[in-house]
Design goal:
Chain lengths: ~270, ~90
Amino acid sequence: MSKVLVVTSGKGGVGKTTTSAAISSGLAMAGKKTVVIDFDVGLRNLDLIMGVERRVVYDIVNVIQGEAGLNQALIRHKEVDNLYVLPASQTKDKDALTEEGVGKVLNDLREEGFDYIVCDSPAGIERGAQLAMYYADEAIVVSNPEISSVRDSDRMLGILASKSRRAKDGETSIKEHLLITRYAPDRVGTGEMLSVEDMLEILAVPLLGVIPESHAVLQASNAGRPVILDENTDAGQAYSDAVARLMGEERPMRFIEADKKSFLGRLFGRG
Amino acid sequence: MGLLDIFRNRSQDPSAKMAKERLQILIAHERGQGQFRAPHYLPEMQKEILEVIRKYVHVEDDAVKFEVEHNEQFELFELNITLPEKGEGNERSD
């Protein structure tokens, strides 16, 4: 049985694509046949973060419009087995995505035997975002410890609960997960950043993971290599934990306590 | 700048606290305007309730309807089960 996961947030720039890349890679590394789909028609970026931008020939809109077969559009990741990328169109109108079209692509992917179908949502709550979450079984809501991001996450949770296919068909609702990104424990310690507890209290969604603010994320994007592949980095490890939890494993949260040494760092202005 | 920051942070009301309070008020308000969403444990609870019912009566998935209503003062959880017609032999004898 395939599982459809949507990575969403409402707000832009919080780390949806970074998360989609990392989570899909992690699932594939765990032996699950995984595809990650970019729903940001007109502003695609997943191909860059996954490092496959030079191998894009066809995209999801070509598949929906019958100009290419699914297998022509799927890009197999060179470094990670079991991992495929379905890019968004860069040139087509964003109305090219339709509910029926997306439904058919997802069904075809199910028939291809994919265990996980990860949908990377665009920012906002327009068509692309609504279609990315429409067929989801589970949702990862990405949120920064920042006031506008938390508000948008709550808004997105409301939309997931009311406008998805599961909500409309009266099925059990989408399983929701909160993933906090760009977390800076030392700033939480000084009271200038919302804490994990604050965010859980406000959003009341089970916590999938906390990804610390990390140099590794920018380096990974620069290199086009999902950050989870950098097993020695804090962000990479935090994503590995989140993937394990997604598959039902229990793991303690790491990287949520301030580094003890950072007090001295702050004292000398290097906090 | 480092040293000063520490004292400033300690003496001021931490800004994260303000952020939390503002968010709580705002979100309570926005959820009140048709933004209400069911508690996250609901799917699990629905599944378990259905399992309990099925211990005694055989019901199809579409014979069970769950609804959550949200009023200003309270939340109402409504569960409707259409039992199978008599004589269908669905009652468990064990």
